[in-house]
């Protein structure tokens, strides 16, 4: 199919995709593979897979400041740096310069960005989970936010489709709360972790499984065809993987889209606004500002997919004003920018484990254990909060770093530090955040960035439900470690965490059944501008407690399939 | 809650035993301090730092701190990753040892001096950590004043010596079995005297 035979190839495409990250990559892949000529607009620099992973193979001594953050990086990456590790030398090159890309915090918001090819898919945590059927029904049952216009069954084939494409390592468990994916072989647990799993099964009847992670443990033919290979257990994923072993837009979707010869990617190009045509009631294209030259160019297409990351996608809608949409494209409901959700983290517990002295794991596992949600599930009913949380964590042996806080120095101390220390174990919760229209972002009426685009203002905070849940996240983790017989249990519940730090920010252009209360329909189309699709985290009507990327990608593939179907039927 | 508190909790509660220069870096914004780079040591002070580092990680059948380049690493790290409070507390600690005639002491006396310093530092660290775990906007201003006191000298020396040594090429290769590409993840039973792995 070629829908665009006669147009100027430099500025006209069948489809424009804004953003090259987790969902932009999938949109580009699906649309090109279905025959469309696609332009991806990426605001950041070009990163070439493997070739540009400058630090990937560096030895510890080749990283100048090791795991410390130089003062200069801490300033340039002032927001990224709120998430430990993001501003370290080995990955700082893949983070966004926050000084040059400022935002406004009416209330604190931890906004971690990655403006380059592949976006945050380059250094995501890779944890990959399906939602369960109840996740899609909870809003309606509890009268929270708006009901989802889709159900679990609508996404099942798309979950399968994405899981096979990206490759997910995990253990099938047949749990209603955490539906199984199509799995590559699971990564092993260490002996103390297996001990913990058995203890939880016997004492608390709570399942513990190995994390489900988008790292290839047994590459399939379609993975190797893209140049992807097995995980080497280096656990240096966030530097970029020279083996393509973990899924990213760079290692998977973009090469697949490129193979069609129907993909163009524009780098260093900021999508500033959508161009709307009153006569047709459609968006005709995207106005783009070159990062370096400030040159403005319009690109046009029949359909436009917004995958800029939830906050930037909403900002792009808000900045696209016309006589039809004076408050931003698709914003008749006034819901664009509202209902910011995330997963709240930073509450849990850790402990030391006695024994297992002869056990040591060879290799570094880029994965951990997962304890599925058990609160407000089955017969469990909490009185202080709705929904629930899952835990991620695991056991490891302490190394020489323990020496920093220990007494001693000299020859015997030096020798001692070369030997492994005690096993320790820890878990932290990932809690569901409820949608709240007062948790919002909007465009600053005055302040603009150096490209003349209004700054985003964040005005959002956790509510009572999240605060109550966090106490239980800490206490339940401590109880579980205690039930397993572990020692020196320490609970934690960080009070300084803000929305955003989970790097699962979502909800700012939610799907819904009613255009009066939602922005997108059940196929992620803007209600009143049907050729604009939003398929990143902005589309989410609730947040579940599991990591969201799989669901975003499944929604994207489903919407792309629908979009091409509608184009074919000349409905778009 | 301000940025500095936020960072202090990140560092404490993600379980890192290392201190957080990032935290201090962020403080600088709050306190309008000058950019780093002014940190220097005299040649006497350099000798003293090298001597202390070598006492923490001495040469045995494997290289010591000096052979592994730790003294220069410490100075570079203080310049690049730390701010005025640490610059001051570090130099104060060095000067204290200079005044005690540390470099002319016997090795036994030097060791004894450092033992005492380690014991004193424990109390200083307790106070330092209390500063960092307090929360709340009301306490903020007072806290920021207190935090003008940097990490104690001994803590900085020990942390940077261990970090510099065990991640240096000489120190890491001598202490551990360096495996840049493990290729698998599996259980091994440690035999006595066996080197463990570093990656």
Description of the structure:
The model of chain A is unreliable at 1-7 (pLDDT under 50). In chain A, the strands form 4 sheets. In chain A, strands 1, 2, 7, 8, 9, 10, 20 and 21 form an 8-stranded mixed beta sheet that branches. Helices cover 22% and strands 20% of the residues of chain A. By secondary structure, chain A is α/β, with parallel strands linked by helices. In chain A, helix 1 (22-33) links the parallel strand 1 (12-18) and strand 2 (38-41). In chain A, helix 1 runs parallel beside helix 7 (249-258), helix 1 packs parallel to helix 11 and helix 4 (152-166) crosses helix 11 (549-568). Chain A has 2 domains: 11-68 and 117-167 and 248-342 and 507-572, 3-Layer(bba) Sandwich (FAD/NAD(P)-binding domain); 169-246 and 343-432 and 463-496, no CATH class. With 199 residues, chain B is mainly alpha-helical. Chain B has one domain. In chain B, 60% of the residues lie in helices and 4% in strands. Chain B has helices at 3-13, 21-31, 43-56, 70-81, 84-99, 107-133, 140-146, 153-166, 169-175, and strands at residues 177-178, 186-189, 197-198. In chain B, strands 1-3 form a two-stranded parallel ribbon. The two termini of chain B are 37 Å apart. Mean pLDDT of chain B is 81; it is low at 1-36 and 134-146. Classes of the chains: A alpha/beta (572), B mainly alpha (199). Chains A and B meet through helix 2, strand 13 and helix 9 of A and helix 1, helix 2, helix 4, helix 6 and helix 8 of B.
């Amino acid at each position: 199919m070629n829908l665009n035979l006669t147009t100027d190839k430099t500025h006209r495409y069948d489809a424009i995709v804004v953003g090259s990250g987790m969902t932009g990559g999938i949109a580009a892949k699906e649309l090109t593979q279905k025959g469309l000529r696609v332009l991806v607009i990426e605001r950041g620099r070009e990163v070439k897979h493997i070739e540009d992973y400058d630090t990937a193979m560096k030895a510890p001594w080749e990283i100048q400041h090791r795991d410390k953050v130089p003062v200069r990086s801490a300033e340039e990456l002032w927001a990224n740096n709120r998430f430990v590790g993001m501003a370290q030398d080995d990955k700082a090159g893949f983070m966004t310069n926050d000084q040059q890309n400022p935002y406004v915090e009416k209330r604190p918001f931890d906004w971690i960005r990655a403006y380059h090819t592949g976006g945050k898919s380059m250094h995501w945590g890779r944890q990959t989970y399906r939602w369960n059927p109840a996740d899609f029904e909870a809003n309606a049952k509890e009268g929270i936010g708006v009901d989802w216009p889709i159900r679990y069954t609508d996404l099942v084939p798309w979950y399968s489709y994405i899981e096979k494409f990206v490759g997910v390592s995990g253990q099938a468990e047949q749990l209603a709360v955490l539906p199984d994916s199509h799995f590559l072989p699971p990564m092993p647990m260490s002996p103390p972790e297996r001990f913990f799993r058995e203890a939880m099964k016997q004492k608390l009847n709570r399942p513990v499984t190995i994390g489900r992670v988008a790292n290839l443990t047994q590459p399939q033919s379609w993975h190797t065809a893209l140049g992807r290979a097995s995980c080497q257990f280096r656990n240096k994923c966030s530097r970029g993987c020279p083996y393509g072993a973990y899924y990213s837009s760079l290692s998977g979707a973009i090469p697949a889209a490129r193979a069609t010869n129907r993909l163009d990617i524009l780098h260093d190009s900021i999508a500033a606004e959508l161009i709307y045509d009153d006569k047709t009631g459609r968006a005709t294209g995207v106005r783009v500002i070159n990062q370096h030259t400030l040159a403005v160019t319009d690109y046009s297409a029949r359909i436009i997919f917004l995958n800029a990351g939830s906050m930037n996608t909403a900002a792009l809608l808000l900045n696209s004003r016309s006589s039809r949409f004076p408050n931003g494209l698709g914003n008749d409901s006034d819901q664009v920018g509202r209902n910011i959700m995330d997963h709240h983290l930073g509450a849990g517990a850790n402990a030391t484990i006695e024994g297992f002295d002869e056990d040591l794991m060879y290799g570094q596992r880029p994965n951990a254990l997962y304890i599925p949600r058990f609160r407000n599930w089955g017969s469990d009913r909490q009185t202080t909060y709705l929904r629930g949380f899952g835990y991620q964590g695991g056991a490891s042996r302490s190394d020489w770093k323990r020496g920093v806080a220990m007494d001693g120095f000299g020859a015997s101390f030096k020798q001692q530090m070369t030997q492994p220390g005690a096993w320790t174990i820890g878990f932290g919760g990932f809690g569901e955040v409820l949608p709240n229209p007062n948790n919002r972002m909007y465009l600053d009426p005055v302040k603009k960035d150096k490209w003349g685009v209004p700054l985003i203002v964040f005005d959002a905070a956790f509510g009572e439900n999240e605060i109550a849940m966090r106490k239980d996240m800490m206490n339940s983790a401590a109880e579980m470690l205690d039930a397993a017989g572990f020692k020196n249990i320490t609970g934690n519940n960080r009070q300084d965490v803000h929305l955003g730090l989970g790097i699962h920010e979502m909800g700012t252009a939610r799907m819904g059944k009613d255009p009066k209360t939602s922005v997108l329909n059940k196929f992620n189309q803007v209600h009143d501008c049907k050729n604009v699709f939003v398929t990143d985290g902005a589309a989410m009507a609730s947040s579940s407690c599991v990591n969201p990327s799989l669901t975003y990608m499944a929604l994207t593939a489903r919407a792309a399939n629908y979009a091409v179907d509608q184009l074919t039927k000349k409905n778009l | 809650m301000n940025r500095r508190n936020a960072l202090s909790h990140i560092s404490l509660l993600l379980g890192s035993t290392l201190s957080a220069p990032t935290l201090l870096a962020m403080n600088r914004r709050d306190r309008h301090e000058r950019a780093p780079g002014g940190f220097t040591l005299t040649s006497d002070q350099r000798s003293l730092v090298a001597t202390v580092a070598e006492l923490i990680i001495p040469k045995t059948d494997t290289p010591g701190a000096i052979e592994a380049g730790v003294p220069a690493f410490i100075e570079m790290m203080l310049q690049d990753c730390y701010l005025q409070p640490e610059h001051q507390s570090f130099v104060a600690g060095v000067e204290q040892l200079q005044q005690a005639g540390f470099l002319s002491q016997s090795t036994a006396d030097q060791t004894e001096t450092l033992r005492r310093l380690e014991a004193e530092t424990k109390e200083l660290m307790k106070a330092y950590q209390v500063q960092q775990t307090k929360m709340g906007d009301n306490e903020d201003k007072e806290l920021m004043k207190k935090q003008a006191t940097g990490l104690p000298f001994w803590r900085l020396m020990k942390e940077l010596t261990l970090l510099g040594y065990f991640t240096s090429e000489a120190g890491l290769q001598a202490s551990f079995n360096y495996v840049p590409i493990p290729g698998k993840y599996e259980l091994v039973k440690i035999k006595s005297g066996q080197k463990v792995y570093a990656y």
